[in-house]
Design brief:
two-stranded antiparallel sheet, 8 helices, disordered C terminus
């Protein structure tokens, strides 16, 4: 696995996440582990790779079925996401559950969002990246209907903030394989079928109404990172 950064996560960093309610406290069950000085991840059995910024953006464990379903549908592992992608997913889940009063709706997700593959440009070549290689984007033509979501313009350094997270056997995430995603799946940019768009008309109208009455991604994310939601 090329291009991994040696982890700079410390016990103090992890305890900071615990104190903010963003991560479970460490017990004899060893819910998380701080890496040693290895150059590339080698998680023990039953552990996956996570990043401290993911939890600062609202990722909690065990994750919601919708979150796990997205990873399985798009054939991604957790490390293939990036902090902004985590924010998009978490905010969408909270919007559905907390403001629309429904379970997260996959076709509504596809109505608003698409997935693209990000590659690292080096010396005129584009090479696959082991982490943060998938971009989650709000479809431009849907921006007028969706709540404004101001994401961080720079997450510089997040790649080195990784640690070992114990996978919950009752709500497992994809096993860490270190697989490089070299090609985007044809289904990544797909939106919902036309008949589903018609069925979602009322939901989209409600979202637009809430937007005109002050619904903002910043307030949704703020509620999450204070430990109030478990996407």
């Amino acid at each position: 696995m090329d291009s991994w950064y040696r982890s700079d996560v410390t016990h103090a960093c992890m305890e900071g996440l615990v104190k903010r309610g963003l991560l479970h406290g460490w017990t004899d069950a060893a819910e998380w582990l701080v890496p040693d000085r290895e150059d590339t991840p080698a998680p023990p059995n039953g552990y996956i790779i996570s990043f401290a910024p993911f939890h600062e953006c609202g990722l909690m464990v065990p994750p919601r079925p919708f979150f796990r379903g997205l990873l399985h549908h798009y054939q991604m592992e957790l490390q293939h996401l990036n902090p902004n992608g985590i924010q998009h997913i978490v905010a969408f889940v909270v919007m559905c559950e907390g403001y629309l009063g429904i379970e997260p709706h996959f076709e509504l997700w596809r109505y608003f969002f698409s997935i693209s593959l990000i590659k690292k440009k080096e010396r005129g070549h584009e090479n696959p990246m082991p982490m943060g290689c998938t971009g989650i984007h709000l479809r431009g033509q849907r921006a007028a209907e969706y709540m404004p979501c101001q994401l961080s313009r720079s997450n510089k350094g997040w790649h080195s903030h990784w640690f070992y997270l114990k996978d919950d056997p009752t709500a497992p995430l994809p096993i860490f394989s270190g697989r490089l995603v070299e090609e985007a799946l044809p289904s990544w940019p797909w939106g919902p079928p036309i008949k589903e768009k018609k069925r979602m008309h009322d939901l989209v109208e409600v979202i637009t109404f809430l937007k005109t009455h002050g619904l903002r991604g910043a307030s949704v994310i703020g509620g999450i990172t204070r430990g109030g939601w478990h996407p």
